[in-house]
Amino acid sequence: QVQLVESGGGLVQPGGSLRLFCAASGLPFSFSLYSISWYRQAPGKERELVASVFSGPVTTHYADSVKGRFTISRDNDKNTSYLQMNSLKAEDTAVYYCNVYGTWGQGTQVTVST
Q1: pLDDT tens per residue across span 23-32
Q2: How far apart are alpha carbons 35 and 10 in whole angstroms?
Q3: Is 16 exposed, middle or buried (0-12, 13-18, 19+ CB in 10 A)?
């Protein structure tokens, strides 16, 4: 059974940073073979793709709204993906989810506020 556990969310002031973690277990094949995506969902809005990192040669994709501020990465030895978020803005407030192999984690809340 595939399981994803996100962590690292919290309350941060505008301009601050957070690092999110997504730990995967139960995947049928090596973690290194899967693409990993981070999404977010703000209250009253649809879930949106934030960033993806693909298998093989490291290739990443970012939503325009986070380019230059967020960095997605992965550690295949630890079956973990990271989302480093810098220069956070109030509009980044949302529940952040990772997705691997069509499976969603439970999400982690990020709140950017004074």
Answers
A1: 999 999 999 9
A2: 25
A3: middle
